[in-house]
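ok so i was messing around last nite and threw this chain in just to see what happens. nothing serious, just curious
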Amino acid sequence: MTLWDKRLSSAIFGLVTLVVLLAPWLFGAWEAWWFWPFVTAIAAAGTLGCVRLALGGLRYSPATLGSFAFGLLASLAPFLIYALMRSLAAPVFLDAERSFMLQLTPLILGFVIVLHFDARHMRWLGVLIAVNLALLGLYGLVNHYFFGNAHVLWEPGYSQYQIGYARATGTYYCPDHFAGLMELAVALGLGLLLDRNQARRLRAGGAALSALGVWCVLASRSRGGGLTLLVLAAGVLVWGLAQWRPRVARRLRLGLLLTVALMLVTLAVFGGNYVKRFKEYPWRKIELSERYQMTMGALRGWQSAPWFGIGPGMHQNLWPHFAASADGNRKLGKRPTYPNTGYHSYEAHNDWAQFMEEYGLTGLALFLVMLGGLGRGLYRGWRRELRERRYEDYGPTGRRHHALTLAALLAAGAFCFHSLGDFNLQIPATVWLLATLIAMPLGMIAQEHPMPGRRSRKG
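result:
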């Protein structure tokens, strides 16, 4: 490696680390004055990555690059091209531009990590993310229990979140988004805890991180966050115990189910305001909920342009057109049952509904192709580890990606579910962190090759 290649590699690593670690501490980079500097840093990392590629600095062989990274690019490119075209055609360009950047920047981060990070970079970044998530969680708990969430960092917090419930907000203004951030901590902690290849101190640290994340989610009083914890537990049942002997795995699954049941009973008895929030939600008359009405408004917007959508970022601009329920009739003088004039929906509180509204069925189909490509890459690594364990009679395999692979699968599953009732994927810092957690195992999987002699043992 030449001196210039080392400098480029270090600069790329520094820029990516800066974005991933610092953005959650600056209100999730939600406001434009935080968002765009981080976008600039991501663009700089991508530019330096292109320069390094042009100079021949790449840690993959051409065959590996062609079979894996280009395969990922083939699944991502159609959606990116479509999103760019729809953004350029949107009536409100600034909102469309931000929406497109929320799609583009995590993919730039991902490709920079996959193409330019070596194993040492992955290990360092993984440790730094874990420590940073722990610090974010500790800050949220201290701010909650000692200062009543009166401030978010140095700015006054929103008092409506504290009336009657006292909800932890962390470094985000909204407790639900703080819960989403801590779901990533739980996923990463579980990945470290359940990976038998990891040293005991790292597995102990993973246990502490996941426990801290669960505590923070419960302190946020987020209903969606609480339900997402159950989804994470289900993910552990499906993916988390692949390295263990079947008999041990069955016992661990039974233990996990009993633990979750005990926690639910304890929460029901001693949950206080958290249980109160669940009970007060209009489950039987869900149409009275503003979140339900915002989702239905987004679906009405989608019905007006089902194939290509109303345009990226246009939900907030066209909300007055689709806010009222569809049972009104101007000719008959019949008012809609739910006019929804008492508030303005800037986000639909349902990422899936808003995405379909803005990008249409075409965009959703291309987005699912992209997710399928990423999921296939992660599953390839997870399945490889499972086969190696069986060949070795469930002994060590020497592979190092399983903790991050498991964390990525758990985090992706959690956000696919939580996004049905919130807009965590509209928070830039959360999206960038999720993209990093997915890209790191993909990069490690791409550079690994089957160990000698494995195929012969199958027979």
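not much to say yet. The longest helix spans residues 351-391.
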